[in-house]
Amino acid sequence: MKVFVLSLVLCCVSAGAFLVQTQPLHQSAPDQQSLQILTKTLLSLANHSVVVEEICQAYPTLIIPHPGECQLYYNCSLTYISVPVHLEQHMVECNYPDLFSEKTNKCEDFTKVCCGARTEFKDKCKFASNE
């Protein structure tokens, strides 16, 4: 597995921040955890769709957990011609009641996933595909 180290320039605007530049510096030994921490930090600071698009352009095979909702994730290798209602470009939702595991980078049985600070919806109606 190869992981990329990102060179990032953030520009702060009032209460938020946005991504100005994303460049791969070099390939290094696998460090998926560092990349996920960096990605989650960026997503929590900025407009998700803009940041995800920048990251996905640089790393087209990357899978990124959604920072707020445990059933969602971004798959950079997936590009919608027509983005589904309630989703964004590259965003995927696990089938109910599965949740996205940061450990395995895939949807898993909800009883086996630790969501941490991400919201874990237990009601089927809260999943975007059921709205």
UniProtKB/TrEMBL annotation:
It comes from the Eukaryota. GO terms for molecular function: chitin binding. InterPro entries: Chitin-bd_dom (IPR002557), Chitin-bd_dom_sf (IPR036508). GO terms for cellular component: extracellular region. This is Uncharacterized protein. The lineage of its organism: Eukaryota, Metazoa, Spiralia, Lophotrochozoa, Mollusca.
